[in-house]
TrEMBL record:
It is an enzyme of class 3 (hydrolase). PANTHER family: INOSITOL MONOPHOSPHATASE, INOSITOL-1-MONOPHOSPHATASE-RELATED. GO terms for molecular function: inositol monophosphate 1-phosphatase activity; metal ion binding. Its cofactor is Mg(2+). This is inositol-phosphate phosphatase. PROSITE patterns: IMP_1, IMP_2. The keyword Metal-binding applies. Mg(2+) binds at E71, D89, I91, D92, D217.
């Protein structure tokens, strides 16, 4: 993508993120209309939907030849990533949004012919924007994030993961994962994939391991994490398919191999 075009899209996207976040802040303390999707704990509110619609309307009127992939379904249904594609999670961390009114983010990844060009993750409550353009570094607000330290060991690592890894699951043996959590320095579970990616880029989490994520959960995060030398793959170390759901590992490269080889591969169940 040409720099001048990318810079224009980047500025426009940031402006819309701030506008959308003002609307979210205005309405978030009113009674919410909450519905469930695939199961009783899979929540969506009218604010998730209105926020996605807001971006879709802006993009369609400003860039009519761009495509949109959005969690709440107001975008396009795509079977390839040709052209410019906005991959949008209007509110990542809806459960946190509903229950805590914090720890949620707007996440937008902008891809050109399948390559991540722009990543934007905005922590609405804290007013922190993580952003990156491919090849130009990653930023937390105006501060440039530093490359991830390469002398890290697993024993000194903080890992983002949730309790489902220690429950019976279809992917990895729970006993192997028990050894894993006993080996690392600590685990954390923030409930927003986008923010967990941002924390990897910031170097305050060293790996984030997750059983199943969708493109809108990771599209922005991948671009931001890449810019500080972080790596994102499936939990088996394969490249991520941006139109499919997959189990994901994003981390400091110093601990990628040991996590995959000594834990995931050892405990992998045949699916
Ligand atoms: C969810 C959050 C959560 C992750 C789920 C996602 P949503 O996104 O990122 O942390 O564990 O897998 O679906 O539904 O709140 O946008
Ligand atoms: Ca959701
Ligand atoms: Ca999400
Ligand atoms: Ca969402």
């Amino acid at each position: 993508m040409e720099k001048i075009i990318r810079d224009n899209i980047f500025q426009q996207a940031i402006k819309w993120i701030y506008e959308a976040s003002s609307m979210i802040r205005e309405k978030m303390n009113d009674p919410l209309h909450i519905e469930t999707k695939s199961n009783p704990n899979d929540l969506v509110t009218e604010i998730d939907q209105a926020t996605e619609k807001f971006f879709v309307n802006k993009i369609r009127s400003t860039y009519p030849n761009h495509f949109i992939l959005g969690e709440e379904g107001f975008g396009d249904s795509l079977d390839n990533l040709t052209g410019t594609v906005w991959i949008i999670d209007p509110i990542d961390g809806t459960t946190n949004f509903v229950h805590q009114k914090s720890n949620f983010a707007i996440s937008i990844g902008i891809y050109y012919n399948g390559v991540g060009e722009i990543g934007l993750i905005y922590d609405v409550k804290r007013d922190v924007l993580y952003h990156a353009k491919k090849g130009e570094g990653a930023y937390k607000n105006k501060v440039k994030l530093t490359p991830l330290k390469r002398d890290l060991t697993l024993e000194k690592s903080i890992i983002g993961m949730n309790h489902f890894w220690l429950c019976h699951n279809r992917l990895v043996d729970e006993k192997v994962m028990e050894k894993f959590v006993r080996t690392v320095r600590g685990t954390r579970s923030y409930g927003s994939a986008a923010l967990e990616f941002a924390y990897i880029a910031e170097g305050i989490l060293d790996a984030y391991l997750t059983l199943n994520l969708a493109p809108w959960d990771i599209a922005a995060g991948i671009v931001i994490v890449n810019e500080v030398g972080g790596v994102t793959t499936t939990i088996d170390g394969e490249s991520v398919h941006m139109l499919k759901q997959s189990p994901i590992l994003t981390c400091n490269p110093a601990i990628q191999e040991i996590i995959i080889k000594n834990y995931i591969t050892k405990g992998r169940k045949v699916t």
